[in-house]
Amino acid sequence: MNILFVCTGNTCRSCMAEAIFNYINDNKDICSRSVGLSIVKGSVTSLNSAEIVKSKLGLDLTKRKAIQCSKDDIKNSNIILTMTSHMKDMLISAFPEEKEKIFSLNEYVGVKGDIIDPYGGTITFYEKTFFDLEKSIRLLLEKLKGDRV
């Protein structure tokens, strides 16, 4: 199973989500990737996102480059999880034939609200976003485990 996390620039939320998911996930049949809807070519993971991921997971994302979302990314993913309901609506509008597999992350796991973009915020704001993502991803893994039973 391929899970795709999507945010705006693929430098904060979705790359943290990918790192958290792949770090926590123990099922090798499920993998995740992340992309952005509107990346700046050549951009890398934001310094604060990289710092939080390094301190919490011990992973180095400082050289990770943002990836632009493509039609193949959408087509080749089993579940597509956006950071906001607006992004979900944008993807469904662009790929109506794939709408059954496009959700906001929090919607998919039964949590209200969106994952707020910390871009430009303090390290504390990035840390809150990390913990919000971690909570939702733990719920996601439980849901996926339940769906397999």
Automatic annotation (TrEMBL):
TM region(s), chain numbering: none
Domain of life: Bacteria
Enzyme Commission no: 3.1.3.48
GO molecular function: protein tyrosine phosphatase activity
Pfam families tied to this protein: LMWPc (PF01451)
Alphabetized UniProt keyword annotations: Hydrolase, Protein phosphatase
Phosphotyrosine protein phosphatase I domain span: 1-143
Active site: 7, 13, 117
Family: Belongs to the low molecular weight phosphotyrosine protein phosphatase family.
Name of the protein this chain belongs to: Protein-tyrosine-phosphatase
The organism of origin for this protein: Clostridium putrefaciens
Lineage: Bacteria, Bacillati, Bacillota, Clostridia, Eubacteriales
Gene that encodes the chain: ywlE
